[in-house]
Amino acid sequence: MGRRSPTAATGALRPVHTSAQMQENSSGAGRRRVISMVAIVLVAIGGAAADQAFSSIHLRPLATLCAIAFTLFAELPVALAFALVVSAVYSVTGANGPTESFKAVDAAVFTTINVLAAYIANATKVRAAELARLKAELAGELITKQQLADIASAKSALQEYEQRYLSVGDFIPFGTWHTRPDGRLHMSQSFLDLVGMTLEEIQNGGWSTRVIPEDARRFLEAWEQREQRDGNFEQEYRVRGVDEKLYTILSRGTRLTGAHGESLGWVGVSFDITERKRAEERLEFLAEAGRVLALSLDPETTLDRIARLCVPMLADWCAVDLVRGDGTLELVAVNHIDPSRVEWARRMREKDPLDDDTAVRQVVRDGKPLLLDEVTDPTIGAAASVMIVPMIARGKTLGAITLVDAESTRRYRPDDLEFAEILSRRAALAYDNARLYARQQRVAEALQNASLPTSLPDIPGLRICATYRAGANDSEIGGDWYDAFELPDGALALSVGDVAGKGLRAAVVMGAVRQAFRAAAFEGVGPAEILNRSNKLLCHQGIGMVTAAIAILDVESGQLTFATAGHPPILSIRPGETPRRFTTEGLPLGVLPDYVFAQDSAMVDRGSLLVMYTDGLLESTRDIRAGELAMAGAVESEIAAPTSNSAESIVAKVLATNPTDDVAALTVQVAIEAFDRLDVILPAEPESACVIRRGLRRLCIAAGLTEQRTLNVLVASGEAVSNAIQHAYGVDGGDVHVHAYVERESIVVEISDKGKWRAARQDGHGRGINLMRKLLDSVLIRTTGEGTTVELRLAIGPAL
Amino acid sequence: MKGLANFDVRHFESYRLITAAGEIDIGNAGDFRLALQDAAPAGIEALIVSLADITYMDSNALAVLIEATRRFGVSRRQLCVVCPPESPCHRIVRIAGVHKVLPIYESLDAAIAGIAAS
């Protein structure tokens, strides 16, 4: 376009000038022709008059000449008419022949001559005009002086425009470019200066050596296909300048097309969009940082992510220091652009590459960022640039992030520091949040662990198992619980429940509800009343909603009394059968203070498995019905092939993967045999005495002993067990074996150890053995090399 | 297993009362001993130990009571052990024959009267 404008401008002026000239010429010629034709007519008339007046002269040739002359100015028909008229006039005026017939012939010949003369004159005129036109045409082909001047000015204008274009290109940071129709590339001097190459080097492939390879590949691919496009070209690429900085360039071009649609090459501009790109990247980086940091609720992970984020976007390597409780700084995270050098960076940082720990310390103390330029340390590199920004959250300086630019030669500027500060603030807040969250979680976990029973009742004839699983998102502790405890009358109380909500609050509520259950149960009230009381308490305190199932198992009779409050049913299953569902209608606790709960009871037969659980098990699938089926299947397979921990096993069978919600489950397996014997081996520890007493109490009651006789058996057995615990073993310890059974209307208890104690000689044991003898019908003590067995025997006796 | 027995101590003008409830065996006789010591530090002239709510005890508990009786005797302080008739502790004390050794009272009122009388 630029090259065409000068010629277009001169071409537009010339036609105007030429047409004006032509109009002027044509009007002058017309006037002269009319004057000539009038003069000729006058000459012819004059000649004819003279010829009439003077008979001595013959002016007939004058008439012929007039006819010829007139023809030169008039069209052929007019000229022929004039020739006939002038011939007739002269024939009349100059008729002086000898005879009349001679005069007629003479006039005819004269007329013919004049017509012929006019015709020939016309033919000559036409021919001459033709020649003149041809001559004029020939003359038009030749370049006049004016035209030469025009061309010269157009050319210089073109050169001027091109020069302007090129200098504009030189003025634009990375200039302009164009390709000639022959495909040769031209780039502005400013671009050549940027990459430090000559135009020849660029034309011989030097461009791609400076451009990031993947960008070069993409650019060249697009360039190859430029002719298939709509005539525009646009690509970005990153190029390393001669100053080793990385520039992002947007190259935009358009195709030049000739008058007939032919390609005249491409012309374009290279824009430096490094800054814009940087701003874009930073915004993206901050958005990404926000996402990454928000994802982590673990403080350690958060710090690690901060270090990862900064490299390579902000630094070649990055270190995060935290202020510890005693005010010292601890390096907690390091990342390096080269993974193999992370350890190196860690060592460097520990040695302190800044050569003064005080730099980081100063930042932490003042809470103000530092930008250190030209840090010359042989271990970092000669021209490194360092930024240290404080991590401030909630008005407290938690630590500092050190960003070191060691390998590349980017130099941090104040705006880099500002950016690092923004990032550091976000990182600090994320870390602080994670820390607070973790602390809260630790408390909640501790509380829950403290709330769940550490040991389950050890009741002969019953196997009680329990399990608790945190949800898939294990960072949130739930409020599910299980509980099992013996009541003073020997019954077994069982409960499971689920507090709505998560975290510390749920754990607190859970602990409170479980305690309320225990307190009520120890007062001897039934499941419905336990729920009534706990419900009132929960409603009164307004601390939340809880679902629960509670059951009390009379160990002797197998009667189970139960009540549920918005909770899944208790399952009871016997081998080869489908589960029975024990449930009562009941709202969750904490909804209506005056709600009255109902309870029900059922017999739990020998060999049954009782299963209590929280709804995390049923909700493991989206479909509750499917969850119930899975649950029934797991319970059936558990009773068919019991495992060592039935609760754990059932949960594992229902939940293929980790639960989404937390889950608590409790199982009670009732032994198949009737409870008519006790056979336990326990460590010879003081704590075992109570367990043995529980079993013996049940056996005595089952055997029909009175309360007094039962106490006698228990005290006598307690003496024997105490002896075994205190005297049988040394520091290494051992076991005590209790075998009790009913034989010939007597209850027999055998207490054995594999230690060495001589009953008779031991001081104090005399009293124990005497007591045994007073309490029972017979006491036999057998001491062998194997150990000692005390056999106690008491008649069941008549019921009182 | 903890919590087999509870030891509740109440302060009165002229004596202290410790009420033991539950079971005392080899596993928690030590707790019982400490509870007695804590209930009557030096300066407390009289201590009543109520065993009325005890459901089980054996010679481990008796040994603690005998030792306490001796200690109180040495320091010339008064110890009263309440064992109501027909209670488990009463039976065990009698069967073991230590009712002659221990200052047994049949009721709390009797024990309080005993302290006032001295």
**Order of neighbouring strands in the sheet with most strands of chain B:** 1-2-3-4-5
Measured distance between first and last alpha carbons of chain A: 127 Å
Terminal-residue CA separation of chain B:
40 Å
- Classify the beta-strand content of chain B into a percent band: 25-35%
Biggest β-sheet description of chain A: 5 strands, antiparallel
- The pLDDT mean of chain B sits at 90
Low-confidence stretches of chain A: 1-24, 378-383
List how many beta strands of chain B DSSP finds. Answer: 5
Outline of chain B:
globular
Overall pLDDT of chain A:
81
Indicate the structural class of chain B: alpha/beta
Helical segment count of chain A: 20
Radius of gyration of chain B: 13 Å
Query: If strands are numbered along the chain, what order do they take across the biggest sheet of chain A?
Result: 2-1-5-4-3
Q: Portion of residues in helices of chain B? A: 25-40%
Can you characterise this structure?
- Chain A is of the alpha+beta class and 800 residues long.
- Chain A has a five-stranded antiparallel sheet, sandwiched between helices. In chain A, strands 7-6-10-9-8 form a five-stranded antiparallel sheet, with helices on both faces.
- Mean pLDDT of chain A is 81; it is low at 1-24 and 378-383.
- In chain B, β1 (5-11) and β2 (16-24) form a beta hairpin.
- Chain B has a five-stranded mixed sheet, with helices on both faces.
- In chain B, α1 packs parallel to α2 (59-74).
- The interface between A and B is medium-sized, with 27 and 20 residues.
Brief digest:
Chain A is α+β, with helices and mostly antiparallel strands and 800 residues long. In chain A, 48% of the residues lie in helices and 23% in strands.
